[in-house]
Structure formats: C-alpha cells, structure tokens
Model the fold of this input.
Amino acid sequence: MTPSKLGVGALLRMGAGAMVWVSAFAALYAGYSLGCQAFGVDAAAGRANTTGALLVAIALTHAAAMALLAARWLWRPVAKQPAEPDGSRGFRHRVEGLVLGMSSVALVLLVFPMLMVMTCVG
Done:
C-alpha cells in the first residue's frame, strides 16, 4: 500500500510516539547544557536548582503528551482508510501501540538518570 492511499494522518499516528521521544531527547539535552551555562551551579541549593526544575517541567510535559497519545490509542478505534485491506487496519493499530510502548520506555530511561543525579555538577 502506498502512502498516498494510506493517508498522511495514519502515518503520523504510527510515528507519533517516536516524535515525542525525539522532541524530549533534544529538549532535555539542550536544556541541560544551556541551563547549566545560563544559570550556573549553586552548591548551597543542593539538588534543587533552576536547571533541574526546568528539566523536570520539560520531562513532565513530554510524559503528558505520551500519556495523551496512549489514551487515544487505547480508546479510539483505528478508522479504515479508503481502499485499505482489512488486515492492514489491525497491523497499523499494533504498530502504533508498539511504537508508543517503546517510546514510553525510552522516555522513562531518558528521564530516570536526570532525576537521580544532581544537575550541573562538575
């Protein structure tokens, strides 16, 4: 099936989880390096600093977006596209779920070390 028959929306939904993860990856790493340069290190504040709060806000925003995508995947049935075979619809739904699941795990693995280690050390 060619992309023109499937529809751009269907293709975007299949890769939406990966797009959210890529956005989180870029924003967190850029926020970490630029935040440490802009705000510096305040040793007296300990773990609580401006850069850490910024990174947690970015991470929570992306986690909320991933949760919304997962809720949509769970509760909204996959619409049949014009001229689409019957088996293709179930395949698209499974691929969308797998990409969302893998992207959610990757987001957790990206954010977990950030929460465990003090930001801007060294």
